[in-house]
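thoughts on my protein:
***
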Amino acid sequence: MNEQMKMLGRASLSLLLLALAACGGDATAPGETLRPVRYFMVDADSGMRVRSFSGLSKSSTESRISFKVAGTVTTVAVQIGQRLQAGDLIAELDRATFALQTQQAEAALVEARANFRRAEANYERTKGLYANDNASLNDLESARASAESAEAMVESASKALEIARLNESYTRLVADTDCSIASLDVEVNENVAAGQQIAVVSCGDQFEVTVDLPESLIGSVNVGTDATIQFGAIPDRTFFGKVSEVAVASAAGTAGFPVVIRILEKSAALRSGLAADVSFLFSADEADGTYVLPVTAVVNNSEGTYVFIAEPGGNGEAIVRRRPVQLGELTQLGIEIVDGVSIGDRVITAGISVIRDGQRVLLEADE
């Protein structure tokens, strides 16, 4: 009897094990604790991509100054980096020749005025003679023409003197406003031509950066587009800016379109000529299928490159599915996925080292 009871017990245990196996391997035993995982929801904003471009900073009111006349430099009164106030001398030319020209113009004006007085007196005398029939009409008209010509010569000599004085004043190059010297391009005793660059001055404390964008991206940038700027010379600080100018044609000899970004913040560390990295946030076309995920979501090993997708099953639970993906570029926001995910996917970002395909988990959304 005891032997029959033992055989019956073994048969019952075998049937129970077969029943459990028939229920499927993913069944959770009563009381089993599901592993919680964090996930990232792929949405339209996941297609935002960062692109960075190199450029140089400069003052928003930077000017290249020059003399309006040619001559020999006799004085350079500034140094690079020097702060100037309006009216401060920058450089000066030899003014001896211009002073002589001014004196010559002054003498010519004196002579023209004297000739005008004689011609005017002769005209008045001729008018009296003509009134008494002691001068002909031709004499009167000739005297009047001489007076008018002499008057015109006075006007011409006066203008010539004004020009001579202006040219003499142009031998002094002074600052129009408060500024600082960004570069200096001449030395004393150097002969310079009219319009030749003498110095570059930066006025004010507002700066901007110019970068060249390719034709594939220039249409995505408009005046007012936001950007972030970082300088190697100013580590651990990010500046914010807005696009102030967008070129309508590519720069000469290049395929890039110049774009000017105005830096919104002011800083004593900013100056012209600093190398800058300017970053823009571009939205990818949804049809492009490219999205940016956290780097921690991607597994790359001997089995390939893949992510884990959580398929919700209700009550906060989900089934883990492994999905191969194709990677794009590494950006400041994360890693680009050019193929393998779509909007609405829940990509697991934490706990991926201890989960497997087909496992049941509890979902916790990333903050």
Observations:
- Confidence is low (pLDDT under 50) at residues 4-9, 11-29.
